[in-house]
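SUBJECT: protein chain
CONTENTS: sequence, structure tokens:
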Amino acid sequence: MVIKLSDCYRLAAIPDLSRCLRLEKIMLDSCISLKRIHESVGSLTTLRNLNLRRCENITELPSDVSGLKHLESLILSNCTKLKVLPESIGMLKSLKTLEADDTAIVKLPESIFRLTKLERLVLDSCSYLRRLPNCIGKLCSLQELSLNKLGLQELPETVGSLKNLEKLSLISCASLTQLPDSVGNLISLTELLAYNSGIKELPSTIGSLSYLRTLSVGNSKHLCKLPDSIKTLASIIELELDRTPIRYLPDQIGDMKQLRKLDIGNCNNLESLPESIGLLGSLTTLNIFNGNIKELPASIGSLENLVTLTLNKCRMLKQLPASIGNLKSLCHLKMEETAMSDLPESFDTLSSLRSLRMAKKPNLVPISLENTGSFVIPPSFCKLTLLYEFDARAWGLSGKIPDEFEKLSLIETLKLGHNNFHSLPSSLKGLSFLKKLELQNCTELTSLPSLPSSLIELNADNCYALETIHDISNLESLEELKLTNCGKVVDIPGLECLKSLRRLFLSGCSACSSKARKSLSKVVISFSLPINLDSMNNKNEEKSELRACLL
């Protein structure tokens, strides 16, 4: 038998349920007007689940709940006015789950140690709960203890007695400055989450956690170093150290043979990586976002399973090691806003590379080649045939984009804006999946070649030297065309065939305005679509771009 009254916002009370002898489940979640639970609920011997989530006006539970012999799940989450758990809660011999997060409870009853079958205890965001009783160590079946956003200053030493604990979550416990040494006794622990905590150091005993798979201490502003014993975490898969002031990684970090994810993003005091990092043979994700790393060790080329490497905003990093070409599994390389101006010759051997983001912040004012670094894309770059995203905005690309570029046939997004190359390949039709092409502020570019019919967006704003555009009549999917300030363009052949066009920007293209008007008139006649050309006659207005909206 089940009573389901969820979301009954006006329900203020429930009746005597003592005659409901087969009742197994009561669902009263989000009954926000409910102020009390009838005392009879405490004697429902067949009840297994009681859900009071978001009953915001409940201030207390029945004083005697000892009759709930078979209750397995008690959900009190978001009962924000509930201040006390009854002492009789210790009589709930079958209880496996107790969720009391975001309540007003001040302390846990001492009788809680009798809950020998309790597997999950959630106390997140109980802002008045400042300490845990020592008897918590007697919860011998506990598998998950969640204490996120509590004002705890310490954990009792007895927590180390929780031999079956698999997950300990201390996220955003800002007042918690250390973990007890007894944490090393949590022989079943697989997850230790202390992100955004006040922890200053990890106990050396942490190395005894032989089953630990995830250690998250990121954004712990006072954590300056890791214990050497961390190397003995033989099962560790994820290590999150981002936004901490650590100065170095232990030389023995290479002993973590199972490590798959290492996050050291925003570790601004970390200036180098140990050579042993190349021994992390299982590593798939390495994040060094916004770091002060000056160079990557050559051993990084030994990370044969690395899939994602993030180097964005590593502004001290001037080059990649030649060994980078050995990363045969690398799919995603993010190196935006670095100090790099060249790619190693071995780069073309990254045979699995799918996404390459190496954009820099564009200069607002054009800068001559004499004052900037320049890089000519070599034909060998086009061996990266699995590439589907390439972002090289403001990277100092110069010369000619090689004709072999068409071999990158899987590319969907190509961003080459704010560069100094003067020509594209004679044809880009081979890029049959290309949807977005950005060439804005390529001030040396003189012509646009034939483009693939898959294209949806084309941005060539401020290409001041652009004179010729190949026939674009095949661009049946094109929705947006931006040619602002392309003053040398005289004609846009095929414009009248763009039946999907929704947005057209031609401000500052006075040379081709009359032909564009005629072409657009044909579009209106051919497809019976409304168009506004008023801005064509107001060239001196502050916002004078031609915007054709074909709805």
